[in-house]
Design goal:
Elements (H helix, E strand, L loop, with lengths): L8 H40 L12 H11 L4 E2 L6 H6 L3 H9 L6 E4 L4 H11 L4 E5 L5 H6 L5 E8 L1 H4 L13 E6 L10 H5 L10 E6 L19 E5 L4 H10 L5 E4 L11 E2 L5 E4 L8 E2 L5 E4 L4 H5 L1 H16 L6 E5 L4 H8 L10 E7 L2 H10 L8 E8 L4 H19 L11 E7 L4 H20 L2 E8 L2 E4 L2
Parallel strand pairs: 1-2, 2-3, 3-4, 4-5, 5-6, 6-7, 7-8, 8-10, 9-11, 10-12, 12-13, 13-14, 14-15, 15-16, 16-17
Antiparallel strand pairs: 17-18
Length: about 475
């Protein structure tokens, strides 16, 4: 038997390895204990300064950008440090870095004459994107804007016709999509014509929407030959003019989808205009329909029937005939808005024209300021007069309390009749939206409460109903 006084080399190596590992484990445990203690101290310090760590700071940058984008959808005052991206940049350094680097946040603004440095910063930060702006008054600021005209997208300006001549050298507008021009002074103070103003936009290959508002400049019936009328799909002519101008514009704009006119004067003579693309028509006088044929029309808004209709039976007869003829030539029409009639008799005569209208879906939106109009129109809204009525919306403003209670009762009768209609060829009502401008009155509140109770029963039966009560800027949904 041989005895070994020392372990073999392999055994010593293994023992040394185990010993070293045990030492490393001990060292790591000590380090972990130190780190745990440090972490506890740091957590205690964090809790004592919780105000320095709001939850919003945990949001990822991508989510912050989405929030900023939603909050800056409307044009902001470029010189206001509390609005738009300027306001976000004052919260903290991180937000300032985020907003300064996001070009889309700076791409629309409401321009003021000063300060120039802030406007320059906006253009720099919005580059290279296109941008929208509103200019409250054409002045020296327009020179700054013209330097970036290649990036104009949607613009809105205020100024007299002479001010707009400053746009004469604006040159190319390759990205311009829409323009809103407000004429702030009567034409008598300047010799500038509308054609001269619109000539500035002759190099706008993407322009599709034009809005003209305010005081009409000189030469209103002389259209610019250089302006790209054929490109327009939306045109709003809110300048007081004649039907003749409406006819000329529709001829020059064969691709219009939407047209709004403030004309209320008869032309000397004009042939009927056939427009095959127009889908939305907004007019101030029924008489304009005598000169139009719009086979693709979907929606018709008549804002004012005109005081001359009330005073002249012949005019009234002509308007009724014009509306009947127009409806017969508009097979796709499904939405009609009457807004602001003067007396009840013309309304009844005009509404009665829909008896023979072969319209699949008819939406009637009513807004009147005359109590007589509201009562008579509501009483006239029967299945025989509106055979295809499916959606009914009524907004009544400034009604006398003594009349409102009676009006609410008659309106409820109409809804009930049209919901339970079983007559052949008459469409059943599908949705109702009612809005009342009412002061607090016991009798009116009682009628309104009864209406809400009954309409809630109809709602349970399947009728889509919404009822609102408003007073000034306060609006309350009752149902």
């Amino acid at each position: 038997c041989v005895a070994f006084d020392t372990p073999p080399p392999e055994r010593r190596t293994i023992l040394d390895s185990v010993h070293n590992i045990e030492q490393d484990v001990t060292s790591c445990r000590e380090r972990i204990a130190d780190l745990t203690a440090a972490l506890a101290d740091a957590e205690k310090l964090r809790r004592s300064h919780i105000g320095l760590f709001p939850p919003v700071h945990t949001l990822p940058v991508e989510l912050l950008l989405e929030i900023f984008t939603l909050a800056v959808r409307k044009p902001y005052e470029h010189c206001s440090i509390t609005r738009g991206p300027w306001g976000f940049g004052h919260v903290c350094r991180l937000w300032r870095q985020i907003t300064s680097a996001r070009s889309s946040l700076w791409s629309f603004t409401r321009c003021q004459p000063s300060p120039r440095s802030m406007l320059d910063a906006i253009f720099e930060r919005s580059s290279p994107l296109s941008f929208d702006y509103e200019l409250d008054r054409i002045g020296r600021t327009i020179d700054v804007l013209k330097a970036h005209s290649m990036r104009w997208r949607n613009i809105s300006m205020h100024g007299n016709a002479q001010d707009y001549l400053q746009l004469g050298d604006v040159g190319q507008l390759p990205l311009l999509d829409s323009a809103v021009l407000h004429f702030t002074n009567p034409a008598g103070i300047t010799r500038c014509t509308l054609a001269q103003v619109l000539d500035s936009f002759q190099y706008a290959p993407k322009l599709q929407s034009l809005t003209l508002r305010g005081y009409p400049p000189k030469g209103l019936n002389q259209l610019s030959s250089a302006f790209p009328w054929h490109q327009l799909t939306h045109l709003e002519m809110s300048l007081e003019s004649t039907f003749l101008l409406d006819c000329q514009l529709l001829i020059h704009c064969p691709n219009l989808q939407s047209y709004s006119s403030a004309s209320n004067q008869e032309p000397g003579s004009s042939d009927a205009v056939l427009h095959s693309e127009l889908k939305f028509l907004d007019i101030q006088h029924v008489g304009l329909l005598s000169y139009l044929q719009c086979a693709s029309l979907i929606a018709l808004n008549i804002h004012v029937l005109g005081p001359d209709i009330d005073e002249d039976d012949d005019v009234m007869e002509d308007c009724v005939f014009a509306l009947k003829t127009f409806l017969a030539q508009s097979p796709l029409l499904d939405t009609v808005l009457f807004h602001g009639a003067y007396l009840a008799t013309p309304v009844t005569s005009l509404i009665s024209t829909f008896m023979s209208a072969s319209i699949e879906t008819f939406k009637l939106y009513v807004y009147y300021e005359s109590n007589e109009d509201l009562e008579l129109l509501t009483a006239s809204a029967t299945p025989l007069l509106l055979p295809n009525l499916t959606h009914f919306k009524c907004t009544s403003c400034r009604l006398d309390d003594s009349i409102t209670a009676q009006f609410i009762r008659s309106l409820l009768d109409v809804i009930q009749t049209r919901w339970h209609v079983e007559r052949r060829g008459v469409t059943k009502l599908q949705s109702v939206e009612l809005s009342f401008e009412l002061d607090r009155d016991a009798a009116v509140d009682g009628e309104l409460s009864f209406m809400i109770y009954y309409l809630r029963v109809l709602e349970e039966e399947g009728l889509d109903i919404a009822v609102f009560r408003f007073q000034g800027s306060i609006r309350q949904q009752l149902l």
